[in-house]
């Protein structure tokens, strides 16, 4: 039986599972592995803090995701397809692992974040 997202440890499980899928994803994986060349040891803890702050208002995230995505777009043009696929993959990962109020919230928040980024990054 699935549980809801309850704490940062659950967020780590979610983020790790999501980025594991991302690394081999045919649609957007190359953005992470070949264009941004993500340092996963550095990136994952940032994502843990980002989503922990989004769901639990911890205030432990200090970053500028919009700027990071603009820089990525400068290297390789991002499209609506990229953002929609990211959102679908995130939603599926959440649904595979969790259910409940926070699980629903993190899907909605991700969709809204992706939409905002898409509107501000794709020019």
From TrEMBL:
A single GO molecular function term of this UniProt record: oxygen binding
Recorded superkingdom: Bacteria
Matching SUPFAM superfamilies: Globin-like
InterPro entries linked to this entry: Globin-like_sf (IPR009050), Globin/Proto (IPR012292)
CDD domains: TrHb3_P (cd08916)
Name by which UniProt lists this protein: Hemoglobin
Protein's organism: Flavobacterium johnsoniae (Cytophaga johnsonae)
């Amino acid at each position: 039986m699935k549980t809801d997202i309850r704490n940062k440890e659950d967020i780590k499980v979610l983020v790790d599972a999501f980025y594991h899928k991302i690394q081999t994803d045919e649609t957007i994986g190359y953005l992470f592995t070949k264009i941004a060349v993500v340092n996963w040891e550095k990136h994952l803890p940032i994502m843990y803090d980002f989503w922990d702050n989004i769901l639990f208002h911890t205030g432990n995230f200090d970053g500028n995701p919009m700027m990071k995505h603009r820089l990525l777009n400068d290297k390789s043009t991002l499209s609506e397809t990229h953002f929609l696929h990211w959102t679908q993959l995130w939603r599926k990962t959440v649904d595979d692992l969790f259910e409940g109020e926070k699980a629903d919230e993190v899907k909605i928040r991700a969709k809204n974040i992706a939409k905002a980024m898409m509107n501000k990054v794709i020019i």
